[in-house]
């Protein structure tokens, strides 16, 4: 159902409200329309006692192929295509389920809002910003990320990964109150990027890492 609701929301100029509980799916969710927002009841967090996924939340759980990507927010690639704007994701937990490589990837989009999101055990990256060819400048810019967290105790994928292509990079995006609970790997990976703002962001290394 989650894979089918994008077009309905876009046609009706609506956002999509996701219920509390586990939403399991196994195919890439490609949000390639402008100004559509997906929001759940809230994300869970990394816990030191009592196990994970114990709080009331909206959990997106991957049941697809190993090394899959769970969600991307993108402008459709093409030499005559415009860069899309707006939309975003908030109030959800992305659970790789020991399978998915990537959680959320934002590709050549501007002015999206992403907040209250938790990522759990991804092998490549939890959150990534990238670029691909468009008919206009494809740099992902002016996106805002607030209260983003991850738990990476059994996987070594990055927490936040900013990158681009030879003609575009990730720039002028803002990150507030982001925190990674890590054991191995690199939390913040900054490659082809510039002029991004990070405030009150940290990474905490677990014992043995």
Task: Tell me about this structure.
The chain has one helix spanning 5-11, and strands at 16-17, 21-25, 29-31, 37-39, 58-62, 69-74, 84-85, 88-95, 102-107, 109-110, 113-120, 125-130, 144-152, 158-162, 170-171, 174-176, 179-182, 188-190, 193-194, 197-199, 202-205. With 209 residues, it is mainly beta. Strands 1, 2, 4, 5, 8, 11, 13, 16, 17, 20 and 21 form an eleven-stranded parallel beta sheet that branches. Strands 3-6-9-12-14-18 form a six-stranded parallel beta sheet, with no helix packed on it. The model has no long low-confidence stretch (mean pLDDT 94).
Report helical residue fraction: under 10%
Radius of gyration: 16 Å
Mean pLDDT level = 94
| Biggest sheet architecture | 11 strands, parallel
Task: Name the shape in a single word.
Answer: globular
Question: What share of residues are in beta strands?
Answer: 35-45%
Q: What oligomeric state do these chains adopt?
A: single chain
N-to-C terminal Cα separation, in Å?
39 Å
Could you name the ranges where pLDDT drops below 50 across 5 or more consecutive residues? none
DSSP strand tally: 21
Q: What is the element string, with H for helices and E for strands?
A: HEEEEEEEEEEEEEEEEEEEEE
Counted by DSSP, the helix tally is 1
Coarse structural class: mainly beta
């Amino acid at each position: 159902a989650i894979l089918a609701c994008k077009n309905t929301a876009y046609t009706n100029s609506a956002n999509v409200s996701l219920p509390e509980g586990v939403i399991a799916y196994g195919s890439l969710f490609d949000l390639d329309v402008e100004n559509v927002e997906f929001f759940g009841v809230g994300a869970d967090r990394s816990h030191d006692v009592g196990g994970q996924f114990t709080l009331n939340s909206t959990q997106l759980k991957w049941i697809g192929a190993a090394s899959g990507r769970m969600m991307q927010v993108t402008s459709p690639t093409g030499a005559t295509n415009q860069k899309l704007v707006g939309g975003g994701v908030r109030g959800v937990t992305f659970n790789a389920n020991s399978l998915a490589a990537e959680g959320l990837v934002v590709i050549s989009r501007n002015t999206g809002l992403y907040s209250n999101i938790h990522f759990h055990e991804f092998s490549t990256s939890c959150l990534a910003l990238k670029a691909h060819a468009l008919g206009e400048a494809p740099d992902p810019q002016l996106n805002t990320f607030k209260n983003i967290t991850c738990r990476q105790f059994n996987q070594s994928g990055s927490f936040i990964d900013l990158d681009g292509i030879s003609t575009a990079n990730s720039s002028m995006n803002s990150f507030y109150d982001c925190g990674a609970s890590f054991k191995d790997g690199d939390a913040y990976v900054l490659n082809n990027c510039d002029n991004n703002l990070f405030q009150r962001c940290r990474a905490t290394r677990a014992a043995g890492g």
